[in-house]
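Field reference: "sequence" (input) and "structure" (output). Example, TetR/AcrR family transcriptional regulator:
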Amino acid sequence: MQTNIFNNYRQWVQEQKMPKGKRAVLLAGLDLFAQQGYNGTSTAQIAQQAAVSQATIFKYFKTKQDLLLAIIQPIIENLFPLYRDDFLPQLDRFTTVTEMVHFIVINRYQFIKENADAFVIVLTELLTNDTVRQLFFKAVQASQPMILQHFSMAWAKVGIRPELDLMTVARTLIGQLLTYFFQQQLVPQLPVDETRDLQLIEQQIIRAIQK
């Protein structure tokens, strides 16, 4: 499986039956939103990159927000489940907290890094866009049975503190990784030793959740 969400999104767009102009607008919007951010991108720029008129953009999308949603919705509804189904079964093979945490930290941080633009766009919209929030929480709810199944099996084998529920452990894992990720995004000029930093993150997580 490709590990880059935007590459998979481009492939998904190419496979859909749609007018050529609409496809060009979606791909141009994707590239420019990733490079410049949503607020830093104008419909004129999208039209220029797509080699269409602005009228063509508004023929298919009433607003720039609708164009952004047309990009984000397939990512949340179609692509994230593919990554979920690829990732979760791998948790079943670990027998210690150390092994499991090491895998999650390295695997998921690499995934976040490779999809930095997608994460920034989606997380920003989660904070400001009710429609995106509803799509996201619907996807999370649909994934809950599979998430609980694999994490419950892993919990039993590796020895997680019994008083910690799934959401508490998830906050510990996700919070550490996203904090480090956004530190890199917000202050990219700071010197970092990624290998050492991730090792420290692993140690902090293990201390927090191990029996």
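The radius of gyration is 19 Å.
The longest helix spans residues 130-158.
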